[in-house]
């Protein structure tokens, strides 16, 4: 199609002239070689030292080894300091230890906010106090948490030693003991490796529950870790702290799982309760349907019984409707034209069968009345309806037979009386004469 374009447009599609090649003025940066070419290490072999003259390689110290070394050095320094202080320590020449040692009471684990007046008020109940010396830190001036109380009488100190141990002052239970530095030979304070304590032996299962003022040697048989050096004690504290945190996490997770199980059980109980309510409602509907079906069946049986009663009366009335005389018309005892096997004998046989059927009907009615009385005892709420059905049954399906005012028992007695005058037929209520024997 382009060949049909005008020349001015064809000139737009014409190729341009090729670009002329011009040599570069200088080399490219990657083509320049300013460095010396690579060579081997042979010229430098003579610069290396002899392996026999080289020192052995040194091994660097790891972080754990460095920490262990510093801890060991610290323990050694502390032991040297303790030994030096033990040589210099003499409680009998201590300028701070004043007064009678046998009247002085040692009180430890005191709250840092407790004042001297508060201690005096708490311990004056055991006797008059001569002096109270609270120990403070020399560097910071803050209380160290223990004090010495000197009583005027030794018996007051013994009373306080016996009764004040474990007393709660400002929210903390104090430890009460005698001054052992000047009274017990060979005793050393805790800062020099001795002293009391031993109550914090581990977790809550191995801690000692007493005040800790007695000698710890009597508790060596208790389960739990024995007294350890300073570094091991710190390490065990850290381990116990981690174990306690893990136990708390486990307990928290256990509580969460219990709460989840509780919610799950509550949901299952609600579901089970809903299911039981549905089943109860279904059972109620089923019982209601069963009662209704029983009532319908009872009504149906009543209707059938009434129809049978009405049908029996109609059969007896058929001969009169057809124009034939009843079999017991005429004087009793008179033979018919055909002799003893005539219509009179046949009528007597029919009357006997009818009497037997009447007697069996009376027995059935007595059984029904007995069953109805038993049902009435179980279902007293249906007394009115049962009474209506009894009245309907006694009325003979709405036909007035002259016995409406008589009860069932009186009607049965009247029917059972078969005198010479006749008996009452229950089907239609007519008085029928007795057949001659």
TrEMBL record:
<dbReference type="GO" id="GO:0030619">
    <property type="term" value="F:U1 snRNA binding"/>
</dbReference>
<feature type="region of interest" description="Disordered">
    <location>
        <begin position="187"/>
        <end position="437"/>
    </location>
</feature>
<feature type="compositionally biased region" description="Basic and acidic residues">
    <location>
        <begin position="343"/>
        <end position="393"/>
    </location>
</feature>
<dbReference type="InterPro" id="IPR051183">
    <property type="entry name" value="U1_U11-U12_snRNP_70-35kDa"/>
</dbReference>
<keyword id="KW-0694">RNA-binding</keyword>
<feature type="compositionally biased region" description="Basic residues">
    <location>
        <begin position="255"/>
        <end position="268"/>
    </location>
</feature>
<dbReference type="GO" id="GO:0016607">
    <property type="term" value="C:nuclear speck"/>
</dbReference>
<feature type="domain" description="RRM">
    <location>
        <begin position="103"/>
        <end position="181"/>
    </location>
</feature>
<protein>
    <recommendedName>
        <fullName>U1 small nuclear ribonucleoprotein 70 kDa</fullName>
    </recommendedName>
</protein>
<dbReference type="InterPro" id="IPR022023">
    <property type="entry name" value="U1snRNP70_N"/>
</dbReference>
<feature type="compositionally biased region" description="Basic and acidic residues">
    <location>
        <begin position="269"/>
        <end position="286"/>
    </location>
</feature>
<dbReference type="Pfam" id="PF00076">
    <property type="entry name" value="RRM_1"/>
</dbReference>
<feature type="compositionally biased region" description="Gly residues">
    <location>
        <begin position="192"/>
        <end position="201"/>
    </location>
</feature>
<dbReference type="InterPro" id="IPR000504">
    <property type="entry name" value="RRM_dom"/>
</dbReference>
<dbReference type="GO" id="GO:0043484">
    <property type="term" value="P:regulation of RNA splicing"/>
</dbReference>
<dbReference type="InterPro" id="IPR012677">
    <property type="entry name" value="Nucleotide-bd_a/b_plait_sf"/>
</dbReference>
<dbReference type="InterPro" id="IPR034143">
    <property type="entry name" value="snRNP70_RRM"/>
</dbReference>
<comment type="function">
    <text>Component of the spliceosomal U1 snRNP, which is essential for recognition of the pre-mRNA 5' splice-site and the subsequent assembly of the spliceosome. SNRNP70 binds to the loop I region of U1-snRNA.</text>
</comment>
<comment type="function">
    <text>Truncated isoforms that lack the RRM domain cannot bind U1-snRNA.</text>
</comment>
<dbReference type="Pfam" id="PF12220">
    <property type="entry name" value="U1snRNP70_N"/>
</dbReference>
<keyword id="KW-0687">Ribonucleoprotein</keyword>
<dbReference type="InterPro" id="IPR035979">
    <property type="entry name" value="RBD_domain_sf"/>
</dbReference>
<feature type="compositionally biased region" description="Basic and acidic residues">
    <location>
        <begin position="60"/>
        <end position="79"/>
    </location>
</feature>
<keyword id="KW-0539">Nucleus</keyword>
<feature type="compositionally biased region" description="Basic and acidic residues">
    <location>
        <begin position="207"/>
        <end position="254"/>
    </location>
</feature>
<dbReference type="GO" id="GO:1990904">
    <property type="term" value="C:ribonucleoprotein complex"/>
</dbReference>
<feature type="compositionally biased region" description="Gly residues">
    <location>
        <begin position="394"/>
        <end position="407"/>
    </location>
</feature>
<feature type="region of interest" description="Disordered">
    <location>
        <begin position="48"/>
        <end position="79"/>
    </location>
</feature>
<comment type="subunit">
    <text>Component of the U1 snRNP. The U1 snRNP is composed of the U1 snRNA and the 7 core Sm proteins SNRPB, SNRPD1, SNRPD2, SNRPD3, SNRPE, SNRPF and SNRPG that assemble in a heptameric protein ring on the Sm site of the small nuclear RNA to form the core snRNP, and at least three U1 snRNP-specific proteins SNRNP70/U1-70K, SNRPA/U1-A and SNRPC/U1-C. Interacts with SCNM1. Found in a pre-mRNA splicing complex with SFRS4, SFRS5, SNRNP70, SNRPA1, SRRM1 and SRRM2. Found in a pre-mRNA exonic splicing enhancer (ESE) complex with SNRNP70, SNRPA1, SRRM1 and TRA2B/SFRS10.</text>
</comment>
<feature type="compositionally biased region" description="Basic and acidic residues">
    <location>
        <begin position="294"/>
        <end position="310"/>
    </location>
</feature>
């Amino acid at each position: 199609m382009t060949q049909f374009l005008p020349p001015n447009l064809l000139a737009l599609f014409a190729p341009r002239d090729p670009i002329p090649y011009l040599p570069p003025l200088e080399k490219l940066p990657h083509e320049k070689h300013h460095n010396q070419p690579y060579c081997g290490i042979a010229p430098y072999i003579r610069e290396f030292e002899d392996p026999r003259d080289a020192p052995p390689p040194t091994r660097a110290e790891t972080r754990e080894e460095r920490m262990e070394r510093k801890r060991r050095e610290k323990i050694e320094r502390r032991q040297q300091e303790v030994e030096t202080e033990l040589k210099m320590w003499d409680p009998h020449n201590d300028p701070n230890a004043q007064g009678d040692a046998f009247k002085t009471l040692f009180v430890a684990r005191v709250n840092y906010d407790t004042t001297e007046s508060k201690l005096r008020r708490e311990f004056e109940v055991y006797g008059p106090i001569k002096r109270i010396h609270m120990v403070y830190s020399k560097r910071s001036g803050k209380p160290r948490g223990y004090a010495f109380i000197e009583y005027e009488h030794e018996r007051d100190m013994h009373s306080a030693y016996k009764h004040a141990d474990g007393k709660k002052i400002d929210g903390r239970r104090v430890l009460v003991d005698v001054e052992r530095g000047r009274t017990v030979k060979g005793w050393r304070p805790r800062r020099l490796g001795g002293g009391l304590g031993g109550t914090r032996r581990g977790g809550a299962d191995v801690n000692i529950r007493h005040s800790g003022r007695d000698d710890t040697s009597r508790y060596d048989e208790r389960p739990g870790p024995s007294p350890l050096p300073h570094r091991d004690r710190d390490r065990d504290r850290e381990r116990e702290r981690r174990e306690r945190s893990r136990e708390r996490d486990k307990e928290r997770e256990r509580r969460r799982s219990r709460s989840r199980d509780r919610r799950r059980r509550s949901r299952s109980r609600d579901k089970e309760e809903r299911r039981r309510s549905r089943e109860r409602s279904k059972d109620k509907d089923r019982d209601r349907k069963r009662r209704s079906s029983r009532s319908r069946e009872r009504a149906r049986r009543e209707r059938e019984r009434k129809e049978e009663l009405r049908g029996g009366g109609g059969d007896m009335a058929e001969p009169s409707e057809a124009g034939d005389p009843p079999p017991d018309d005429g004087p009793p005892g008179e033979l018919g034209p055909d002799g003893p096997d005539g219509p009179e004998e046949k009528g007597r046989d029919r009357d006997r069968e009818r009497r037997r059927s009447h007697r069996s009907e009376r027995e059935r009615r007595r059984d029904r009345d007995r069953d109805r009385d038993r049902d009435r005892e179980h279902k007293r709420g249906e007394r009115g309806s049962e009474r209506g059905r009894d009245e309907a049954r006694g009325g003979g399906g709405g036909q007035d037979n002259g016995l409406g005012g008589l009860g069932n028992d009186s009607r049965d007695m009247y029917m059972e009386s078969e005198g010479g005058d006749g008996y009452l037929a229950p089907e239609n209520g007519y008085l029928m004469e007795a057949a001659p024997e």
